[in-house]
Design brief:
The relative contact order is 0.13. The protein is built from nine helices and two strands. α5 runs antiparallel to α8 and α5 packs across α9. The two termini are about 35 Å apart. It has a two-stranded antiparallel ribbon with strand order 1-2. It is an all-alpha fold.
């Protein structure tokens, strides 16, 4: 991970993407897109192709069959992938630390700012921000997608 950080900062400085939300979005998308494609592919491979063919025979177009059959069956896997990607990006520190400074900040960077050389550690604000900022959104997101999540996590577990 260390080998690409310096060129990434130099490139983002040249493109004027340092300390911007767009810069963070581009980096996080670039790092998590391969993992999410690989994970969703494994869920889509477990859906029988015959279901899509039957939908086309019943009068749907290929695109309608993809939307109404395949994606509907894969929503558990998509939910599980979304939760993993959300956790990865929410708690990431290194890239956000190097690409942001004043205008844009993330929760892990904000927590690290509660260390002062004159006052020492400000444990109270760090603990409060860590509890509210790092745990709560992930738990809330998990509860929102809970009904899809259990099936999504076990969908590709057994090979036929």
């Amino acid at each position: 991970m260390r080998g690409f950080v310096i060129p990434l900062v130099v490139m983002f400085a040249a493109l004027r993407l340092l300390d911007t939300r767009l810069g963070l979005i581009i980096v996080y998308t670039g790092f998590t897109l391969p993992f999410s494609v690989w994970m969703i592919k494994s869920f889509l491979d477990d859906i029988p192709h015959e279901l899509e063919e039957a939908a086309v025979v019943d009068g749907m177009t290929n695109f309608e069959a993809l939307l109404k059959v395949t994606l509907l069956l894969a929503k558990g896997g998509i939910s599980a992938t979304a939760l993993f990607i959300f956790i990865l990006n929410w708690s990431e520190f290194l890239i956000a630390f190097l690409l942001t400074s004043t205008r844009v900040t993330t929760i892990p960077i904000l927590i690290s700012r509660y260390f002062s050389t004159t006052q020492g550690h400000l444990y109270g604000p760090q603990a409060a921000l860590g509890t509210i900022g790092d745990d709560s959104p992930v738990i809330i997101f998990g509860f929102i997608i809970q009904k899809h999540l259990v099936r999504g996590l076990t969908f590709g577990a057994v090979k036929k």
